[in-house]
Write a structure and sequence with these properties.
Layout: H1 6-21, H2 28-38, H3 44-47, H4 50-53, H5 67-83, H6 89-100, H7 103-124, H8 130-142
Amino acid sequence: MFNPTRDQARLFFFDSWKKFREQLPLSDLEAIAVEHIGRHPEYHAILDAPERYQEREWRPELGETNPFLHLSMHLAISEQLSIDQPPGVKSRYEKLRASLGDEHDAQHQVMECLAEMIWAAQRYNLPPDGAAYLSCLEKKCLT
């Protein structure tokens, strides 16, 4: 399992974006990252300035969204969907996508459930609860 440091993850996004902008060949994972970056133009200036943003902290308590965490969660969701892990995540995502009519909006709905699962696992020092994650997604499908 790949477990990059914060700096390695950020460098991956900076490098992927730079390669895309320079029209250099991308790996499959870089291409997926760039696809998500493309849907977030608010992050382009950040990714164009690694010297300024490599060490920056984003504070959720101040209403800030960490662009690297956000993009990493998009990558995690893309991976989950590609292998349907946990089993059933793909079908629930497809229901959301169909009801919302937009792939990116559906990913953001999934992201809310993923973030909730991760928060609970960290808060209570437990392994991630795939059943709770799927339950959260199922509730979103019903609303």
